[in-house]
Amino acid sequence: MKKLALLLLFLVISSCVSVKQHNKRLEIPIDATNLRKDVDFTRQKLEKLHPNLYWYISKEELNKKFDSLKLTIHKPLKPKEFYQKLAPVIAKIKEGHLRLYPYDKRLTKKEIKDLKNQKGLLNRYNFTIHHDRIFVKDNADKIPNMNVGTEILTIKDIPVKNLLHQYKPLVNSDGENQTFQKYSMERRWPSFFTAEYGILDSVKIDAKYQNELKTFYIYREKITKEEKKKTEKENKKQQRSETGKTKDYNIVTKSFNRDLQFATKDSLVAYMKIKTFSGTFSRKFYKQSFQQLKNSPAKYLILDVRDNLGGSLAEINNLYSYLVSDDFKFINDIEVTSRFSMLHANYINEFPDLLKPVAVLTYPLYLTGSLFSVKKKDERFYVRNNGIFAVRKPKKNNFKGKIYVLINGSSFSASSIISSKLKGEKRAFLVGEETGGANDGTVAGRYSTEKLPHSKLQLPIGLMLIQQNIEFTGTKKGVLPDHEIIPTLNEILQKKDIQLEWVMEDIKNNSVQK
After folding, report:
1. Which of 116, 135, 365, 415 has a C-alpha 20 to 30 A away from that of 177?
2. Same domain, yes or no, for 375 and 414?
């Protein structure tokens, strides 16, 4: 027991020292020569691992941006200052999945524990952005002074417009798409603010609500033992229930990630909302849902993937098999840069700490499998099709009625892929806003997280070019809706779903005509 206690004490002390050393580097300027080497390192890794680096930017233009950046580095910079220079160049590659991560401050175990017992600050609200202005969209906790529709004017005496202009170069999308940035900024600006000013206990806000100006502070409140116990009990109850598993209960949003309802009393219209393609128990959900649809009189299905940032490729492939009646090939062969590129993929780090020993033991098997999983064809390299994405048959209980798909600028990655495939095959009618993810595919799948040698910034690089089996548009844009509907600021704040309303009206008109 003594030895065990000493070992635990050693680990705690080592952890504290590690955190202290890590945070100390934040304030140490890095020599300009070494920073320029980090720029070269970034370029070399991108060229080696990214399978479609020059999709939205030419090689000459990207090289020019890297060279120009190096010319501006003529004095030592702190990691955060270097990040502010390099991140905008990475964003110019115009790949929504490709993002440089800053060298953030680490927290001690005590600090992490304390934060778990506190409510957030800015992230307790949902915001909407309109023309460089931030408005409170949701205030679920009913915190005073933050009514829905409140406009945030300044934070910590800094004008909101200045903050958004500062963060804008750090947010990118796929290709020439412009719809994703707004939604991405709505989610990420509190994180950018925290990264810059640290984890604050309170913050001063200047705001306006119904033409009345007000100044107040918002505070990081403690979670009482009663609140914590009640939340944990509710979460466990939902997660362990059969419904919670099948519909994928989310403890953060306290809602289901997927659900099926009937939008009309006669059950002629079904509404399926998928918030994320998490993959968790998804096969069971779709099997049950489409059997339910088959047993119902439903003639219309509304598939809502608005604000769905993507997820499991296997899940959308499975979902698609319930939406078509003919044999299909969902995606083309996945392209990689070389026979060895998959060896760079994150493997051990993707396992939880408790399972890392298992990851180490199975790593040789992964390496062998990766080498044999790549084939060469016409001087290009592709991941061998393992059967999941070969030509497939539709499910027996596939839906044969009319399908509407609701999309917006926050439909990204896997959401864009399935929307594009359904549109390309003329199987669905798309309503809403251009998706944030590209129409013609994406670079994602497996990642290789590269740590820059001197600044220690991290750059996860997608290793797989994933493209659905369709006729490509070549527009470098997102998936365009068949009928565009963009809600106004007032409609957003008033929770008016004008896109869904239009679909319901269109179904009503079609039914009357028949």
Report:
1. 135
2. no
